[in-house]
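Quick one: structure for this chain?
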Amino acid sequence: MSNLASKKVLIIEDERDILQLIKLYLEKEGFRTVSAATGAEGLRQVKHEKPDLVILDLMLPEMNGLEVCKRLRSVPETTMLPIIMLTAKADESDTIIGLELGADDYVAKPFSPKTLVARIKALFRRLERKPDDSPTQYRYGTLVMDLARHEVTVKKIEVPLTAKEFGLLEHLLRNPGRVLTRDVLLNTVWGYEYYGTTRTVDVHIRRLKQKLPSLNEAIISVKSLGYKLKELDRSA
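Got it. Here's what it folds into:
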């Protein structure tokens, strides 16, 4: 039986009606919820409640969602804390900034609560995938991905990655030399039929390259399609 229902979700949202709607749907699914109405309060709740996932509104009083996301990603304790950002802004640039700062996903208002719940479940399933016959460790030059530890190291130094960055890297390492389209990456890594922009993949790939400079030349952009990880020359 899945233990998704034991998870605690922090909702940082200042619009009471939206907050109550999200709480209603999450608690109906068995999730535990805590909430905050401001960015500063949200940061305090993260520290005290230690949630398993954060739903973060972009437009908040005192401190906006982008700043909250930035602060959460700047400390080791919350570097990998899953974050789903809510945005009422139509401008794509706000979404891109949120993803650049490390948000794992975003949902645009107005949204379907059922869709939000589905995305939360998909993210948790991705993080808690049961072992199968696949390798538990991947090596690429000096990079080592340990799936059991959910850890990536380069020259034995750990490199913190968000859940989506980890998922993208894993899929690339599983399929060296193969072209992976943006749609395939979205549906595989995000874990649901994704109806947003494929620009999401580009942002996460760029962040992955920034954190892992050794992959700058190895992850190749295939025009109009997607990406592939260059196969290592085993004869060298």
